[in-house]
TrEMBL record:
Organism (species): Saccharolobus caldissimus
Any matching Pfam family: NAD_binding_8
Protein name: Dehydrogenase
């Protein structure tokens, strides 16, 4: 069986790795030999991928800011988020298959052609984000998420290893996220050295064509948090099962990804409500949301539906961890 995979990111490389393990003939077509796309590198600590990711930090403490004011902070007694070395993880998975570096792939003679080009089909609404890897002595182990209610989006400061932060910005109405990020860094961190600075888009809207697509190409990103690694890897696991067990690929994925796609849809609706609200209403809504332990718990794991919120109620009550994918 010959499989072509367009785009060797999270979804494409995970699928390629799984198929190569059962001796399928897999070719990844990518525009770059090594994976170099920027990311916050955060995954909720509730999912293990088929190929283990290297972890660089574990996050238990969070704080939320709205328009410069610290609204709430929370500390868990277990690791809520993992920070991973995503580049190393993906580049290691890529080594299991052939890679062709090209902008113009020849796709004849394949039994399957899977599109996992992330946001790059560019057929959806996007937010342009920039992230910096920053070295500083001024370090602590708390993750910060900061909203500026003039815009739709947020700044983040994630500890990525000792004395190093992953800091980023992405706002729907403000495409030059690099400029905003510089200003934010100067105001927030003071003394720092930038080790790496890159930008990339994140999908935040509906994708109409999902056929033979996995990962972000299929729209599998939570628009309120930007979380796309876990859903992309999960979609690759289902794509592998569909191909290996000779299922109807598109029907199988539609069925298996139902819960994730429903949760993404809910977030798209919430995002649209926020986008169309006045600045005052935005502030009020955000303050209510980020003072609620249960909603914060559901937000940090992207499970803002009834089942997810019930899970969060139990989790917050027991003060323990729940290890379920979604
Ligand atoms: C700045 C930033 C921060 C983020 N932070 C987080 C986070 O902390 N946690 C999280 O879960 N998610 C985060 N995300 C989202 C997450 O990175 C993506 O959703 C996830 O990587 C999607 O995986 P994917 O495999 O679908 O696509 P990608 O990882 O985007 O991979 C796409 C691949 O396609 C290749 N490609 C592009 N164009 C072509 C072409 N024409 N032909 C062939 N190949 C092509 C690219 O080179 C790349 O290798 C962030 C995104 C950004 C931009």
């Amino acid at each position: 069986m010959k499989v072509a995979i367009l785009g060797g990111g999270v979804a494409g490389s995970t699928l390629a790795y799984l198929l190569s393990r059962v001796n399928y003939d897999v070719t990844i077509f990518d525009i770059s030999q090594n994976y170099i796309k920027p990311c916050g590198d955060i995954v909720p600590n509730v999912y293990s991928p088929p190929y283990n990711w290297p972890q660089t930090f574990r996050i238990k403490r969070f704080s939320f800011y709205i328009d410069g004011e610290r609204i709430y902070d929370v500390e868990y007694n277990h690791t809520k988020w993992l920070v991973i070395d995503k580049w190393e993880w993906i580049n290691k998975m890529r080594k299991y298959s052939k890679i062709k570096v090209t902008h113009d792939p020849v796709l004849k003679g394949f039994d399957y052609v899977i599109d996992s080009r992330g946001p790059y089909p560019m057929d959806r609404e996007l937010v342009y984000t920039t992230r910096a890897i920053v070295e500083t002595e001024n370090f602590n182990d708390e993750a910060i998420i900061e909203f500026d209610t003039k815009y739709t989006g947020f700044y983040w400061i994630f500890p990525s290893k000792e004395n190093e932060y992953n800091i980023g910005a992405g706002f729907l109405e403000y495409k030059d996220s690099k400029k905003l990020l510089y200003e934010y860094l100067k105001g927030k961190i003071g003394n720092f050295k930038i080790k790496d600075l890159r930008g990339a888009p994140i999908s935040i809207g509906n994708v109409s064509n999902k056929r033979f697509r996995i990962g972000e190409a299929r729209g599998l990103v939570f628009p309120l948090s930007g979380e796309g690694i876990r859903p992309s890897a999960i979609s690759a696991e289902y794509a592998f099962e569909a191909i290996y067990k000779n299922k109807n690929f598109n029907e199988f994925l539609d069925e298996k990804l139902k819960i994730i796609e429903k949760r993404i849809k809910i977030q798209i609706i919430l995002l649209n409500i926020y986008k169309h609200s006045s600045f005052n209403l935005r502030r009020t809504l955000m303050k209510l949301f980020f003072k609620n332990d249960i909603l914060i718990d559901a937000y940090l794991e992207d499970k803002l539906d009834i089942d997810g919120i019930i899970e969060s109620i139990k989790s917050v009550k027991q003060n323990g961890s729940i290890t379920r994918k979604f």
